[in-house]
Structure formats: C-alpha cells, structure tokens
Amino acid sequence: MNPVDIAIIVSNNGNIGDTHMIIQILGTGCPKCKTLEANAVKAVEEGNIAATIVKVTDLDEIMDMGVMMTPALAIDGDVKSMGKVLNKDQVLSLIKESL
Length: 99
Known about the structure:
- This protein is an alpha+beta fold.
- The protein has one domain: Glutaredoxin.
- The chain has three helices and five strands; from the N terminus they run ββαβαββα.
- α1 (31-47) crosses α3.
- The longest helix is centred in the middle third of the chain and has 17 residues, at 31-47.
- The radius of gyration is 12 Å and the shape is globular.
- Residues 1-17 have low confidence and may be disordered.
C-alpha cells in the first residue's frame, strides 16, 4: 500500500464487539466515494463502534479486491457493497452484521 493512497480515520471509543474493525472505502475520490466515507464515519460514531476507516484509492488494489464499480465498502477485507452510496443506517447495518 502506498501511503499517498490511504487516509485513516480512527474511532477508538467504541464498546460494541471485542475486536477493532477495519472498514475500507474503495474509490477514486469522486463525490459519491466521499459521501460513502462520510456516511461510514457517521455510522461508526452513532453505533459506538471501534473501527478504523481506510480510504483506498489505488485502482490496482481496488481491482484486486474484485471491485469493478465504485464506491465500494469492505469490512475486514470482505466487500459488502459496490456501486452504491449507502446511507448511514445501511452502513451501520452491515457493520452490525459483521460483528
């Protein structure tokens, strides 16, 4: 991973779940990708989830994960959604399913 391609936001104040979750936002930085990232941040904060949100912009890495449409959201390396801008509640639901 190239550090230029990744931005990390950490929320360590969560109580739900025993492990720290990695949420990846995959996309090139378009407005839809930024909206999905913002919705993921809101979901983590509202759900009081211990998680790191990683923005992945490298196209090779995105394609290596099997993503052909962005924005995409992956939790702990497992792609949960692609080609959609999920709202906060949809992201939170996917997070809770992954606990």
